[in-house]
UniProtKB/TrEMBL annotation:
UniProt organism field: Paenibacillus chondroitinus
Name of the protein this chain belongs to: Erythromycin esterase family protein
Annotated InterPro entries: Emycin_Estase, Hydrolase/PRTase-associated, UCP036794_erythomycin
Gene3D superfamilies per record: Biosynthetic Protein domain, EreA-like (biosynthetic domain), EreA-like, domain 2
Domain of life assignment: Bacteria
Amino acid sequence: MNVNVQEAIVEQIKQQAVPLNTPNDLDDLIEAIGDKKYVLLGEATHGTSEFYKLRTELTRKLIQTKGFSFIAVEGDWPSCYEVNRYVKQYKDAKPNTREVLEGFNRWPTWMWANEEVGELVDWLQRHNADKPMGQRIGFYGLDVYSLWESFEEIERYLIEKGTPEQLAIARSAFACFDSYDKEGQNYGASAAFYGESCKDEVVKLLQELHAKRVRYDEDSEAALSAELNALVAVNAENYYRTMVRHDAESWNIRDRHMTEALQRLVQYHGPDAKVIVWEHNTHIGDARATDMRADGMVNVGQLVREAHGEADVFAIGFGTYRGTVIAAKDWGAPVTAMQVPAAQPGSWEELMHRAGAHDQILLLRREDPLLGHEVLGHRAIGVVYRQAYERGNYVPSVMARRYDAFVHVDESHALHPLTIEKVLM
């Protein structure tokens, strides 16, 4: 991109962006969201305190002023469902926020077991306290990684509420995975190269649990949980079987799973349901506006827009110019606070900083002649972060087509994780 185009974008940001100094400044976003039913809140990292705090404040405002029904996040169904039980105050829920968050014990634990999420959970519990059960705000996980934890939850549910036939179907599915030592990669290699698939068993289990929920909806939330755990089993089996050979397709399986889980939750909550989604920018920012499209990849943001129309979806990206972040140098390595260097020259974050070295909000329009067409590098940091490869952490993006708005934190700070023993699976 030439210097003149960069300067034109900087001038446009200066004219259109509004400062973000207090939580009340987020009201511009609330007004822009209007009556949309799907609000997708991103993050440029999985370890930045400001992203979590700003999303909490937006979530609170949306629930209080727009009547949103539930929150769905990039987390495992079983652990998030324990949060759901706690904030809805089920009689056998865990007694406090700390114990609930200790359920996030699979690496990377810090994504949800952190002080910032604890503040959100505390608020949800207080908000729900005087509401009828049907009006209490839920908290659910959309991700696909909890294969063995989901099996355990299904078995517990069926022992209590299922039939002997259903329990036998479930245990047959579980037994198929017994020889893989709770390692998805082990199963994936066997399935991909030796044809040792458990697909039929888990599909049969999902069909059985879905049929039961349709017939017996008086206990629909517990039955819903069993069904979503079975959905995890079906799609995790496919994910691990595919990831050995096809990175792009395994990504697609994961994001299609998250979209299907989201849709089942919306159907459960009824035709007036409104949902807030918390996921990384790479999941909620429309993949068609990035280089993911050329690689044949899709994501939640694209799929939700395609399914429900852009008029009913509002996606907000988040980013930072510099700061610190919680991440690890390798998969499964100890978590640490790392420096996030100043953004690369000419990147989206650097242009936002050049337009104003402060936090700011920018509403985006698809038809914009610059931001709706120019391709800009946009930083993305995952749970593994190596500053030596910083140049590779930028996703080429058409910003006004990827998001409906962008929140820029000029200098950000590392998340505050709880100290929880990690478990690798």
